[in-house]
Design brief:
Shape: globular
Number of helices: 18
Order of helices and strands: HHEEHEHEHHHEHHHHEHEHEHHEHHEH
CATH architecture of the largest domain: Alpha-Beta Barrel
Radius of gyration: 22 Å
Strand order of the largest sheet: 3-4-5-6-7-8-9-10
Structural class: alpha/beta
Largest sheet: 8 strands, parallel, barrel
Distance between the termini: 41 Å
Number of strands: 10
Number of domains: 2
Strand content: 5-15%
């Protein structure tokens, strides 16, 4: 459920079954199958059990009311509700939702498209860096313009080495790591390959040049203060920190973030966004991509929830905004209440669960208010 294929499929509203092992060998072009994503099965032919029920049009007609029809009042929450996105094609649909902005724009799919499937260092070697910058900035502008004036936070690239190796020319530039999940990725990569990170920063600069002042940046997988200092210098050299209103965020997915909050705040970081998937795997030592560890990987484990109960209040004391962009609040109802009680500022989820999450947040806030009134 935490792999990129499943995450993007939820964003697009497409049923998805992953980890089949042999689907591309057994399925044939044009063959009719039924995908039952709820149970993780792919059935030969048409299966009513897994298919969408076609309701007669007459059944969809609104019932005639004897009196005036009162529309349900909108659900208003003090906790901001944001969306996670990765596809520019989904901007219009997501922007029409009752959300306060975008808490996470994933870079990876746009990056592959802008790179035309090639490794970024291959493009640089061919002198085609500017082409990439323009294509990426065009995609990013769609997010910024579509949600304006609501804030949009773009997480810069967090490809792992095994993913980069899959791009054209990747074998030439990427090491073969035994454990890419905790290897050469995130902020550390920016410090050692600043020329690649510079391409992204140039694209972001073009977004601001076009007048989109609601567009902000979030650094992924920051392990140490030293990494953040060096990344901040690169962002400053690109002129972004001089832009009035620009915000630099940090993903809170490496457990060390808790112990570095005050240092990060001193470096001018505006906020942290909890990546519950990576945070869970690192706290529990459970690879999120491993089927054998699927029972161990659980965002509700007491170690994870206690970490959040400490992280969020401490971040607020340090003057940092707080958000979460992992899947947990949209999957586990009790997670919304945990986060609200801890004092989180915003919760960011996939577009398909916006209404459900808004109701969960509202219910949690009402319980808090009721408890306070009774005291």
């Amino acid at each position: 459920m935490t792999c990129h294929a499943a995450i993007v499929s939820r964003e697009l509203g497409i049923p998805c079954v992953v980890g089949t092992g042999e689907a591309t060998k057994r399925l044939r072009d044009g063959e009719l199958v039924t995908v039952d994503a709820t149970h993780g099965t792919v059935i030969e032919g048409f299966s009513p059990a897994g298919a969408t029920v076609r309701v007669p049009a007459a059944a969809l007609a609104p019932a005639r009311a004897s009196g005036p029809v009162l529309a349900a009042p909108p659900v208003v929450t003090g906790t901001r509700l944001l969306v996670n996105l990765s596809e520019p094609s989904q901007v219009d649909r997501a922007a029409a939702l009752d959300v306060d902005g975008v808490g996470l724009v994933r870079a990876e799919l746009m990056l592959v498209e802008a790179l035309e499937g090639a490794h970024p260092r291959k493009l640089l070697a061919e002198g085609r860096g500017e082409e990439f910058v323009q294509r990426l900035s065009d995609a990013l502008v769609r997010f910024a313009a579509g949600f304006a004036p609501r804030p949009v936070t773009y997480r810069t690239t967090d490809f792992r080495t095994n993913e980069f190796r899959g791009l054209a020319g990747g074998d030439e530039f990427e090491p073969d790591e035994a454990n890419p999940m905790i290897g050469f990725r995130g902020a550390l990569r920016y410090t050692q390959e600043p020329e690649v990170f510079q391409l992204e920063l140039n694209a972001i600069g073009l977004v601001w040049d076009a007048g989109h002042t609601n567009f902000h940046v979030m650094l992924p997988f920051v392990r140490t203060t030293r990494e953040l200092e060096r990344c901040r210098t690169l962002v400053a050299d690109a002129g972004l920190l001089d832009r009035p209103g620009f915000e630099l965020w940090v993903m809170a997915e490496v457990p060390s973030v808790l112990f570095n909050l005050e240092r990060y705040a001193a470096l001018g970081v505006a906020g942290i966004s909890i990546g519950s998937n990576d945070l869970t795997q690192l706290l529990l030592g459970a690879d999120r991509d491993s089927e054998r560890l699927s029972d161990t990987f659980d965002e509700r484990d007491p170690a994870v929830t206690e970490y959040l109960r400490q992280l969020i209040p401490r971040a607020r004391v340090a003057g940092l905004q707080t958000s979460i962009c992992g899947q947990a609040p949209s999957v586990h109802p009790e997670y919304a209440e945990l986060l609200v009680r801890a004092g989180i500022d915003a919760i960011s989820v996939t577009p398909d669960v916006v209404e459900r999450t808004r109701r969960l947040i509202a219910a949690a806030e009402r319980r808090l208010l009721l408890e306070a009134a009774r005291k």
